[in-house]
Amino acid sequence: MTDWQELESKYYMQLLTRVPLTIVRGSGVDVWDDQGNQYLDFVGGWASDSLGHSHPALVSAIQEQAATLILTSNQYFTVPQVELAQLLVENSCLDRVFLCNSGAEAVEGAVKLARRFGKKRRNGAGEIITALNSFHGRTLTTVAATGQPHYQEPYAPVPAGFVHVPYNDFEAIKSATNDNTCAVMLEPVQGEGGVIVPDEGYLEEVRSWCDKNGLLLIFDEVQTGIGRLGKLWGYELSGVEPDVLASAKGLGGGVPVGAVLAKEDAAVFDFGDHGSTFGGNPLAAAAGTAVVQTVINENLPEHVANVGEHLTKRLYELDDKYPAVREVRGMGLLQALAFHEEIGGEVMEEALKRSLLLNRVRPDAIRFMPPLIVTEEQIDQAVDVIDEILKAR
Length: 393
Ligand SMILES: *Cc1c(COP(=O)(O)O)cnc(C)c1O
Fold this sequence. Notes:
Blueprint: H1 4-11, E1 23-27, E2 30-33, E3 38-41, H2 44-47, H3 56-66, H4 79-90, E4 96-100, H5 103-121, E5 127-131, H6 140-145, H7 149-152, E6 162-165, H8 170-176, E7 181-186, H9 202-213, E8 216-220, H10 235-238, E9 244-247, E10 258-262, H11 282-297, H12 300-321, E11 325-331, E12 334-339, H13 344-353, E13 356-357, E14 359-362, E15 365-368, H14 376-392
Parallel strand pairs: 3-13, 5-6, 5-7, 7-8, 8-9
Antiparallel strand pairs: 1-2, 2-3, 4-10, 9-10, 11-12, 12-15, 14-15
The structure holds pyridoxal-5'-phosphate (PLP).
């Protein structure tokens, strides 16, 4: 049998410590490795597999579109692109869409939009306030926006123009604002940073500060959007509407699709200001439409809210039972279980032995982000595995 992991170490750039598992197939919340073993997937493509693996609606949309038109160029109009844009606008507080291919590209687009806004409306202001412990992507600019120095240091110098302040600290945003500020960019819940939920009232205060000072409020909803938090968009939880929103991950259900959404007033790009060869291509756009349409038609956000509550309840049971557990964070199907010690990796490895895939989001925490279609029974199955692991320690 081919040793794919051996071949990877020979041919692929060595930049990721991978779990020793070669996944060859998926269906719903289950995946199979090359030895035929089955696993329950609570990583879900880092919160991208919204509909689960091989969902028929997504598979047939891709198959049909592939047989019709995969790519022309953005010098022409194409139907799937307009359809996805319309669907996103009609189901959000935003008015215009630009489609791209990833989360980093969506954030990059939002940053460029904020810079154009600063040039046109704020006397050339170009500085963007972002949060410490945030995550905005891996391109140089999104790495600069990310408030975690270890992502930036290997690539310095990174693009200038980002000021980092502690999350959940409104006063820090006030003091960081100056004549050169054009925008504030935040995640409605910090995902990669360990699932950090905003304090009551924080986003509201930031919103009124942006209004008062003519700043754009950008929400990076790459991880929190498309039903993940139990609403179609994360901003709906606080009711705070952003001027600009970046989406990706769950938007394509596993297919690379990203989007920058903006209110009419904030959509200040001029012709020629931004573009993409693949962005909004018919194949990806058809996939995005199938995903969003299914999420809405099947009322998945409500399902996520319900099963998410069940997950929270079950995780609090572990918190009560085991002194090793420090806290439960998050909501919907973006939650973390944090420990007093750095045993996230150990729990993840033990879970793998018991056929459960988990993500160690911090050395001391594991993150749950299964497909949105996960059932209460599958959540019980996963939590029972963690219970068993903690009991055996
Ligand atoms: C994953 C993520 C990104 C980057 O998305 P890519 O598709 O990996 O480029 C940006 N912002 C947030 C909040 C993310 O979770």
